[in-house]
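=== RUN LOG ===
request id: a7f3
mode: sequence -> structure
chains: 1
length: 108
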Amino acid sequence: MLNDFPGADKVYIACGYTDLRKGIDGLARLVQQQFALDPFTNTLFLFCGRRRDRIKGLYWEKDGFILLYKRLEQGAYQWPRSESEVMLLLPTFQAGAGDCRADTGGAI
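=== RESULT ===
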């Protein structure tokens, strides 16, 4: 799903737990308020819930948002809970200062 996502210039991972009951508006508000980023850019924002078996992605596509959702049938994502864990998982990431986000600069 995500490795075939060519449209985004950047990908941000929201570290820690995200309430996946949030929809498009709630996730866009989270991006703006918590991370001080603009969700209306060519960027994919990824969120993971407490159980780590499902993720949501938020992406703006010129005329509206796309909300991606994936649930694993078995296993769990190795999802970073802090900025230091992002650096351990993916040392090529550039972690944001003062918040918990990581920028791959490309697709995951």
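=== NOTES ===
The radius of gyration is 13 Å.
Residues 56 and 97 are 23 Å apart (CA to CA).
=== END ===
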